[in-house]
Amino acid sequence: MNKPAELQLATVPVWINGKAVVPQGRMGDVYNPATGQVSKRVPLCGEKEIDAAVQAACTALPEWRDASILRRARVMQRFLALLQKHQGEIAARITQEHGKTLPDAMGSVQRGIEVVEFACGIPQLLKGEYSENVGTAVDTHSVRQPVGVCAGITPFNFPAMVPLWMFPMAIACGNTFILKPSEKVPSASILMAELFKEAGLPDGVFNVVHGDKEAVDAILNHPAINAVSFVGSTPIAKYIYETCAKNGKRVQALGGAKNHAVVLPDADMEFTADALIGAAYGSAGERCMAISAVVAVGNSADPLISLLKKKATAIKVGPGDQDGVEMGPLVSAEHRDKVLGFVNKGVAEKAKVVLDGRNHGMKEGYFLGTTLFDNVTRDMEVYKNEIFGPVLVVLRVDSLEKAIELVNSNPYANGTAIFTASGGAARRFENEVQVGMVGVNVPIPVPVAFYSFGGWKNSLFGDLHVHGMEGVKFYTRTKVVTTRWPHQDTPSAGLNMPTLG
Ligand code: NAD
Q1: Cβ of 301 less than 6 Å from ligand 1
Q2: Which of the two ends of the chain, N or C, has the fewest CB atoms closer than 10 A to its terminal CB?
Q3: Cα(155) to centroid of ligand 1, in Å?
């Protein structure tokens, strides 16, 4: 039976070999989280479409890997200019499908664009090493060569920024790439693919496919894909890491988080509360670097909590494209229900409810208000789990030592921050805390593009972080060449281990 409303829905295409295509087969729904209505359809690819993208990437590889570094850099420069020009359009697609506010979406695209700025410097970044006379008349040099066909699998919460952590670095290094963005937010990636083509990128170098586990498994099991970058939740990150390792692929898999902010009594409380409000409730808490647990040391707790309550109550909740709105909806009904379930659990396990986000007054869409729990303990579910919603929990401890022990005993280790006026306390925290990214009076210490982003422990499986020099290392293989141009007087090598001298 025909459903007229559905027939009018646009389908987000895949992008293979420089062309937008709508494959036949399974389809998924893309929602507008502010209204709860289906806004588009998205193809859920299987082995056939993944293989078509891989074939395109394999065909494009020889020419692209041998393109001069300057040519690759110039394509990147034109891509940079086009991303800047279309930043608003990319942000609008993010708000439509993810729900975050437009200014927040603009900021996230900006952070992604900064990776492209860094990738424009690829001629400098790919320089190797050279040593003359490592033996008598023997020289050694190293080069960084592309890995080959690379793939990226990305989460719903940063539809442009997280893909931009990956594919510009991989492509600048001379690889070809297949991106599988989250099927919940597929449109921004297609716009970026169109812009990259307009910038002069040859067909097949960058491809975008959509889908769920079936598409991911086809990527993980495809023999022609050499490296996989993943960002998403911890259980899937672990699965990606193990499957890629089994299949002999290079892999980096970034997982979930529970980020703590430690607040000492000497911190500027007004400044700290403002910082924590943005970090906990910005993007409705759907950030891997969101602060979701505050560790209040000594007598910092009472003044801090009363400020947090006042500021969290004032946050304006509504559709992300409306002026003045500070917090949008959650991404889906399923995710809203999961977060709501944690709020119910927090109440049931007797955390003190300072602010109850279940009372919000929005009639449609996947909204929740801001929730603040006090007197939370480390055995409670609201502390142990990544909630990924507008829920902030406060734990009270009586010393910096105990705060560090608490942070270090958590299995997640993505980001953390300390708020204090004491340089000594901050230095000790920075030195002893076992977390990948640390802020000192900075609540969301997301490193700039010329440093690397990544957590420790259950927040990252693999050895190398994304972007910065670690990104260059991930997307290249080192080759070391030892050279001798024989003279008549050099002795023959013989059968012993060569010592060159
Ligand atoms: P997710 O793990 O559900 O999905 C991530 C990707 O994996 C998507 O492309 C999805 O299609 C795919 N996927 C989902 N289920 C799969 C399965 N069973 N098998 C194979 N592939 C599957 O994550 P999400 O809900 O999209 O994103 C939120 C999560 O991402 C949070 O845990 C958040 O902390 C994390 N995240 C981490 C970082 C970081 O830098 N560490 C950054 C952003 C988000």
Answers
A1: no
A2: N
A3: 4
Does ligand 1 lie within 6 Å of residue 254's CB atom? yes
Cα–Cα distance measured from residue 204 to residue 197, given in angstroms and rounded to the nearest whole number: 10
Q: How far apart are CA 292 and CA 297, in angstroms?
A: 16
Active-site hit among 120, 150, 173, 288 = 288
At position 256, the amino acid (one-letter code) is G
- The predicted model scores a pTM of 0.96
Q: The tokens of 288 are what?
A: 């891997």
Tell me the per-residue pLDDT of 316-363, one tens digit each, with 9 for 90 and over: 999 999 999 999 999 999 999 999 999 999 999 999 999 999 988 888
Spatial contact of 85 and 70, defined as CB atoms under 8 Å apart = no
What does the alpha-carbon distance between residue 432 and residue 469 come to, in Å, rounded to a whole number?
A: 24
6-255+459-481 classified as CATH 3.40.50.2020: no
Whole-angstrom distance between the N-terminal and C-terminal Cα of the chain?
82
Cα–Cα distance for residue pair 150/501, rounded to 1 Å: 40
257 lines ligand 1 (CB under 6 A): yes
Q: DSSP secondary structure string, 449-489?
A: TTS-B--EETTEESS--BSHHHHHHHTEEEEEEEEE---TT
Give pLDDT tens digits for 77-105: 999 999 999 999 999 999 999 999 999 99
Determine which residue's CA is closest to atom 17 belonging to ligand 1: 213
Q: From CA 477, how far away is CA 67, in angstroms rounded?
A: 17
288 is catalytic: yes
For ligand 1, say whether the CB of 165 is within 6 Å of any of its atoms.
Answer: no
| Torsion, CA 191, CA 197, CA 200, CA 201, rounded to 10 | 110
Confirm or reject: Cβ of 256 under 6 Å from ligand 1.
yes
Q: Which of 468, 454, 469 is nearest to 115 (CA)?
A: 468
**C-beta of 233 in contact with ligand 1 (< 6 A):** yes
Per domain, the residue ranges of the chain are: 6-255+459-481, 259-440
Which atom of ligand 1 approaches the CA of 154 most closely? 9
Alpha carbon of 162 to ligand 1 centroid (Å): 11
Asked if 325 and 317 count as a contact pair (C-beta separation under 8 A), the reply is: yes
Instruction: Give me the pLDDT at residue 3, please.
Output: 43
Q: Looking at residue 284, what DSSP letter applies?
A: G
Partners of 143 in the β-ladder: 479
Q: Under CATH, to which class is 259-440 assigned?
A: alpha beta
